[in-house]
């Protein structure tokens, strides 16, 4: 679709003769064949989506974690992450500890355990983990004398000793107990759970991908119809209600999965639902299993571990 003579399908401003390519699926998620693109999105909207929507999907979403499985460079689970947290899913002394997943240019993946302290009142409780940056007396006061503490993560003894000293300040009654064994198996890999939420920004990005597909399939004129103004406002300007646009489903969402009983996808399916009664289409993104999906990842290095009680 040529730019000249048309309007942008998102902001509806006239398009110049030359417009950038808008990839149906952001290039940061890989190079696809065929490389599906549009020529009906203006440069301003294209740049807005890249910086405001796609960046968060890349670094702080389930989609961002899945792309690492295909060897794409990146990291998931940084200190500032809010919408996806890879946590260790095995080993009684480690379960629930936060990690960061990484891949480098050659596709080699690894998992880095963030510096943190875990605590529980007795053996029947799960550990509650606190990152080093959040370690404070208010957190430590929740655990009376006799509680169990674990220190994990970092790059070695220096990080470990620093955490010990910080723990002494906020919890002066602890006693050093020794070193723990790492949770990974003989192959050096550890089971991770991906604790994830879908926020409004991610919903807008998923709807944008679905809307792109609609424009690609049905054409520029159809996509610029006024019936889609509510969706346009939501995607481009963060206006309106997000309800009814993105659905989280734990049951099969494609026919082949229902018939065979075998999962065909763990990611989202983009749909366009016709609604003749109100003469509109509902563009939706439905996720597959997102309730604590699991994967195996190789630990970057054996962290220095302390057992504190």
List the helices and strands and how they pair.
Elements: E1 22-23, E2 37-38, H1 43-59, H2 62-68, E3 74-76, E4 84-88, E5 99-103, E6 109-113, E7 116-120, E8 128-131, H3 137-140, E9 148-152, H4 157-170, E10 176-178, E11 189-196, H5 200-218, H6 220-223, H7 229-237, E12 246-248, H8 255-260, E13 268-275, E14 280-287, E15 294-298, E16 306-308
Parallel strand pairs: 12-14
Antiparallel strand pairs: 1-2, 3-5, 4-11, 5-6, 7-8, 7-9, 9-16, 10-16, 11-15, 13-14
Helix pairs in contact: 1-5, 5-7
Protein architecture, described:
By secondary structure, the chain is an alpha+beta fold. It is built from eight helices and 16 strands. It has two domains: about 20-60 and about 200-285, no CATH class; about 70-195 and about 295-309, no CATH class. The chain has helices spanning about 45-60, 60-70, 135-140, 155-170, 200-220, 220-225, 230-235, 255-260; strands at about 20-25, 35-40, 75, 85-90, 100-105, 110-115, 115-120, 130, 150, 175-180, 190-195, 245-250, 270-275, 280-285, 295-300, 305-309. It has a five-stranded antiparallel β-sheet, covered by helices on one side. A three-stranded antiparallel β-sheet has the order 3-5-6, covered by helices on one side. It has a three-stranded antiparallel β-sheet with strand order 4-11-15, with no helix packed on it.
